[in-house]
What we know:
Blueprint: H1 2-33, H2 44-52, H3 54-61, H4 64-79, H5 82-90, H6 99-124, H7 141-144, H8 146-165, H9 173-205
Helix pairs in contact: 1-9, 3-9, 4-8, 4-9, 6-8
Amino acid sequence: MKGKKLFHIYARVILAFFIAGIIxxxxxxxxxxxxxxxxxxxxxxxxxxxxxxSFKQVRLDFPFLSxxxxxxxxxxxxxxxxxxxxxxxxxxxxxxxSYKQRWGLQLSSFVLIFYLLVLIxxxxxxxxxxxxxxxxxxxxxxxEGFAIWFSFGICxxxxxxxxxxxxxKHPYEVVHWMIYGVKKAxxxxxxxxxxxxxxxxxxxVF
Length: 206
């Protein structure tokens, strides 16, 4: 039920951006006719820009593959039960977890700590393998590859937890969990692309 309500919210916002885009295009035409200092999207130059550059700018501004990678990892976090176990632990409901779940949570926590230590060593070691060429975080692999190292680490932790706790019956279930994350995030992805496209229209007109 909550999923349907959220979907309807996404749909309304997407439709609002779509209508706003049409209004903006018509406004740029009328405003240009009456001598206002705006660029006409329905002129020859405006149409050329619309066809050549609009989605190019959206593609540059929005890291599509990184977003999908993070969505897949979120699907694994949710479906593996690891996040729920973490919440129950912080809410002092650890005893509600089964023995396998507690054991899986402990082992996966050790793996997570070890993984974070490896990243920290890579950042603060004398060679600074994970730092940028200037020796700081700017343009460093740790920032540019955030989606990769975060997803790999968190999916490994969730895989271990779900395997030991017995939630995961077959390894290929991880693939279904990844697809679930992308499926749930699809409306948000559409909304982001439409919103970025509308912003590019505004930049060109004004």
